Amino acid sequence: MNYKPIILVAGEPNSIFFEILFKVLKTKRIKSPLILIASQKIISLQMKKLNFKINIKLLDLKKINDYKLNNSSINLINVSYNQKKAFEKISAKSNDYIRKCFEIAIFLIKTNFSNKLINGPISKKSFLKNKFLGITEFFGKKFKKKKIAMLIYNKDLSVSPVTTHLPLKKVSKTINKKLITEKVVLIDDFYKTFIGYKPRIALTGLNPHCESISNFNEDEKIIKPTVKNLMKRKFKVSGPYPADTIFLEKNRKKFNVILGMYHDQVLSPIKTLFEYDAINITLGLPFVRISPDHGPNEKMLGKNVSSPLSLYKAISFLERLK
């Protein structure tokens, strides 16, 4: 079986991404060719700092279709970045470098060279500059897709937030029947296409215990009618459930996905349950985009103790796709 290459965009150069990539390449057998878009200089500096030795094979983007690739070396499309140390403080200095890396990756996707992309972490504050809530929305804009969703996937239980990196004060004004319905449809389509079955989806309420002291209760006026409508359309949905009890073992085992109203309502429990055994998938794009479920993790830079599990899970998921 021929596997399309998996494109890797390293993202923020001062992150743990190269460390965990080195660990994956050293310990795992990967069938799909990996193509890394990053700075050769930074890779070499961090490889030396972290005491890894892996050969680098430089690729010419103009001849990208001519290579016979395997993972005996790091297959690298080099993007220049001037940094003297292996690790520096995260700043806007890397913005242009990260943008160029993403532009190359988007070119490879749009020219049908690959349909699989993994990106390393970026600093939302430095790179996105409040133009996008997150990389999920960044890719949505680049591919002109308005209906997108963030899915934190684990084979036993996944979660998805209706609103992503949004301040809490804006959540109640943002959720509506249309938005919730769009997320359910995307999740249902993804599971049927890539996992092979129709998922059982639980919706959380917005308010504590699905109760509100205000005159307008979003759980009664928005979420409950949406669930009823989706059930009529034959989606396997139910709710709203109180967010403080839906993740209890006897409750969560009834579902494949828990759809929450805001980011931390569902991401905090899933990270507590599975730690790094989960991957962040963007639904609604014309390709499969995944990122390991963690950020740059500045506190761990250079310590060589970060877990590569989430990156390996991301690669393993994409390896199932032609």
Description:
The chain has 2 domains: 1-145 and 285-322, Isopropylmalate Dehydrogenase (3-Layer(aba) Sandwich), CATH 3.40.718; 149-278, Isopropylmalate Dehydrogenase, CATH 3.40.718.10. Strand 1, helix 1 and strand 2 form a beta-alpha-beta unit. Helices cover 37% and strands 16% of the residues. Helix 7 crosses helix 8. The longest helix has 19 residues, at 177-195. It is an alpha/beta fold. The strands form 2 sheets. It has an 8-stranded mixed beta sheet with strand order 3-4-2-1-5-12-11-6, sandwiched between helices. It has a 4-stranded parallel beta sheet with strand order 7-10-8-9, sandwiched between helices. It contains 11 helices and 12 strands.
Q: Uncertain segments of ≥5 residues (pLDDT<50)?
A: none
Number of domains: 2
Task: Summarize the biggest pleated sheet.
Answer: 8 strands, mixed
- What's the tally of helices? 11
- The CATH topology of the largest domain turns out to be Isopropylmalate Dehydrogenase
| Strand content bin | 15-25%
Radius of gyration: 20 Å
What brief labels describe this structure?
322 residues; alpha/beta; Isopropylmalate Dehydrogenase; 2 domains; 8-stranded mixed beta sheet; 11 helices; 12 strands; 37% helix; globular
Kindly summarize this structure in a few lines.
This protein is an alpha/beta fold and 322 residues long. It contains eleven helices and twelve strands.
